[in-house]
Amino acid sequence: MLVLSRQRDETIMIGDDVEVTVVDIRGDKVRLGINAPKEISVH
Fold first, then answer.
1. How far apart (Å, rounded) are the C-alpha atoms in residues 18 and 21?
2. What are the sequence ranges of the domains in the chain?
3. What pLDDT does residue 9 have?
4. In this predicted model, what pLDDT tens digit does every residue of 11-23 receive, in sequence order?
5. Cα angle vertex 24, ends 37, 2, to 5°?
């Protein structure tokens, strides 16, 4: 498993067209924003 550390507002790219952004960090909870093309299903 690859483990990455990021701070708020930093982004991780998966491939060329999927972005995962750390939106908020509060205590032990992290909110992520995912930006991906419509043809990629995000659950």
1. 10
2. 1-43
3. 98
4. 999 999 999 999 9
5. 65
| β-sheet bridge partners, residue 18 | 14
Q: DSSP characters for the chain?
A: -------TT-EEEETTTEEEEEEEEETTEEEEEEE--TTS---
24 Cβ contact partners less than 8 Å away, ≥ 6 residues apart: 8, 30, 31
Residue 4 to residues 1, 11, 13, 31, 40, Cα–Cα distance (Å): 10, 11, 11, 15, 22
What is the average per-residue pLDDT within 26-42? Answer: 97
